[in-house]
Amino acid sequence: MGFLTTLNIDDTQVPLVVDINPNKHNTYLPGTAQKIVAPQTLMDYRPDVVVVMNPIYVNEISADLAKLGLSPEVVALTGIH
User: Fold this and answer.
1) In terms of Cα–Cα distance, which of 38, 39, 29 is closest to 9?
2) What pTM did the predictor assign?
3) What is the mean pLDDT of each run of 10 residues along the chain (81 residues)?
4) Cα(42)–Cα(67) distance, rounded to whole angstroms?
5) How high is the pLDDT of residue 1?
6) Dist. CA 72–CA 60, nearest whole Å
7) Rounded to whole angstroms, how far apart are CA atoms 64 and 58?
8) Do 58 and 81 touch, CB atoms closer than 8 A?
């Protein structure tokens, strides 16, 4: 999650980071302090926007969000190397 560090984005601006890896759940990103949570956490949080770090996963993540009953705007980052 160097992206958040590079832009100096803290946990007040982006409060949660979602990862499907259960070994990362309930840990925090170093440097920016966002809590890493399971996708199901979004059911309670109900975000307006979800930023996808890799555009290859936009369709999969959009489908997963719909299964959770969520319909946030999904924004894919492109051109990041």
Assistant:
1) 29
2) 0.83
3) 76 89 94 92 95 94 97 85 48
4) 11
5) 54
6) 14
7) 10
8) no
Per the CB < 8 A criterion, the answer to whether 33 and 10 are in contact is yes
Alpha-carbon distance 19 to 11, whole Å?
16
Domains contained in the chain, CATH given: 2-76 (3.40.50.720)
How far apart are alpha carbons 3 and 51 in whole angstroms? 11
- Residue 39 DSSP label: G
CA quadruple 73, 68, 9, 81: dihedral sign: negative
Place of tokens 């992206």: 3
Count of positions (residues) in the chain: 81
CA 51 to each of CA 58, 75, 77: distance values in angstroms, whole numbers, following the listed order = 9, 5, 7
**The amino acid at 70:** L
Contact predicate 18/39, CB 8 Å = yes
- For residue 59 the two structure tokens come to 């369709």
